[in-house]
Amino acid sequence: ILSPESPKYLLEINNEQKAIEASNKLSGKQEGMKNIEQIKTEIAAARTQPKVALKDMWIVKKYRKPLIILCVLMAAQQLSGVNAIIYYSTQIFKTAKLSEEEAQLATIGVGVVNVVTTIAAVFLVDVLGRKPLLIIGFGGMTIDLIFILICLYFVVRRKRTVRVSRWILICNINYLVSQFDFFGLN
């Protein structure tokens, strides 16, 4: 509503004059005309591509397998519970018998690990590729969720307050967040 229409959109609806004006306003007259020509080329190339309907993705065999893999991976990412673990991390740490201050510091540590591993994953995608990071992240998350479950079982159900299990829990939650960053950026 408040943002101006893009030159690409204006060209797509066949309003070339307004597209030229918008492009000139954004980039200057000389650069604006180059942008318009580039956008026209992109639009022409896009129109020559065959259209794939949503139903074709399920019917055509070459699209079906990648679509199923994509759906499973997206569902696994959402159902991993990492958002709940991050949201309730302070409470989880308090349950593990950390003091209020220790729990808050551990939660800050989770945030720092999240930022650092997100930045690292952005660069690692170019170096290692998506598939290895996806496998590493998914496998690491699976193993780590099992460890978190075991740690919470011993801390909550068994009422054991072994200091080692608390730090294992903190490390596991940080590891989970780092693996999610590798898994989630793919």
Give descriptors for this structure.
186 residues, mainly alpha, Growth Hormone, Chain: A, 3 domains, 10 helices, 83% helix, GLUT, membrane
Task: Give a written overview of the molecule.
The chain has helices spanning 7-12, 16-27, 29-48, 54-59, 61-79, 82-87, 89-95, 100-128, 130-157, 163-184. The protein has 186 residues and is an all-alpha fold. It folds into 3 domains: 7-48; 52-78, no CATH class; 80-184, Growth Hormone, Chain: A (Up-down Bundle). The longest helix has 29 residues, at 100-128. The mean pLDDT is 84.
Strand content: under 5%
Q: Could you give a short account of the major beta sheet?
A: none
Order of helices and strands: HHHHHHHHHH
CATH H-level homologous superfamily name of the largest domain:
MFS general substrate transporter like domains
Query: What CATH architecture of the largest domain do you see?
Result: Up-down Bundle
Evaluate the radius of gyration: 25 Å
Q: Pick out the low-confidence regions.
A: none
GO molecular function: hexose transmembrane transporter activity
Subcellular location: Membrane
Membrane topology: Multi-pass membrane protein
Protein name: Solute carrier family 2, facilitated glucose transporter member 2
Brief rundown of the structure:
The chain has helices at 7-12, 16-27, 29-48, 54-59, 61-79, 82-87, 89-95, 100-128, 130-157, 163-184. By secondary structure, it is an all-alpha fold. It is elongated.
